[in-house]
């Protein structure tokens, strides 16, 4: 009976053990950070980029201490922060282009009014 109990306890403990993240998980997070940098996150969303890098560094520490569930969680959050940084960078670039086009439209409007002496509306 005692042997059966020990076998059951051992199998229960091993089934509750967290699964070690695959190396591809870290690679994926690193690639997401690199994509954010290419998208201009260092300029447009440095906070999110910093969070992504910090989460990945914490995940590596979690691996050292065999905290695999925590490491997986942090890897996912690193990727999410990277994606957020990419989207914020894209939004900032679109806003900049829209602002530039608005200025160009205003210049054209003023030129039209000077040339033809009437409002363009």
Structural class: mainly alpha
Query: Any low-confidence stretches, pLDDT <50, length ≥5?
Result: none
End-to-end Cα distance: 91 Å
Query: What is the name of the CATH architecture?
Result: Up-down Bundle
CATH fold annotation: Substrate Binding Domain Of Dnak, Chain:A, Domain 2
The geometry reads as: rod-shaped
Describe the largest sheet: none
List the total number of helices.
5
Tell me the number of strands.
0
Mean pLDDT: 89
Instruction: Encode the helix/strand succession as letters.
Output: HHHHH
- Text of the CATH class: Mainly Alpha
Radius of gyration: 26 Å
Beta-strand fraction estimate: under 5%
* Number of domain modules: 1
Helicity level, as a percent range? over 70%
Protein name: DUF4398 domain-containing protein
Signal peptide: 1-17
InterPro entries: DUF4398
Keywords: Signal
Description:
The protein has 121 residues and is mainly alpha-helical. The chain has a single domain (21-116), classed as Substrate Binding Domain Of Dnak, Chain:A, Domain 2, CATH 1.20.1270.390. The chain has helices spanning 2-16, 23-38, 41-44, 46-64, 68-116. The chain is rod-shaped and about 100 Å long. Keywords: Signal. It comes from Elongatibacter sediminis.
């Amino acid at each position: 009976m005692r042997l059966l109990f020990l076998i059951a306890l051992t199998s229960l403990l091993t089934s509750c053990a967290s699964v070690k993240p695959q190396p591809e998980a870290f690679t994926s997070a690193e690639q997401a950070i690199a994509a954010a940098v290419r998208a201009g996150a260092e300029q447009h969303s440095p906070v999110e980029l910093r969070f992504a890098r910090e989460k990945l560094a914490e995940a590596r520490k979690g691996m050292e201490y065999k905290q695999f569930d925590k490491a997986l969680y942090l890897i996912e959050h690193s990727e999410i922060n990277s994606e957020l940084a990419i989207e914020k960078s894209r939004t900032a670039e679109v806003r900049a282009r829209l602002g530039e086009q608005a200025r160009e439209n205003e210049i054209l409007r003023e030129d039209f009014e000077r040339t033809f002496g009437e409002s363009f509306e």
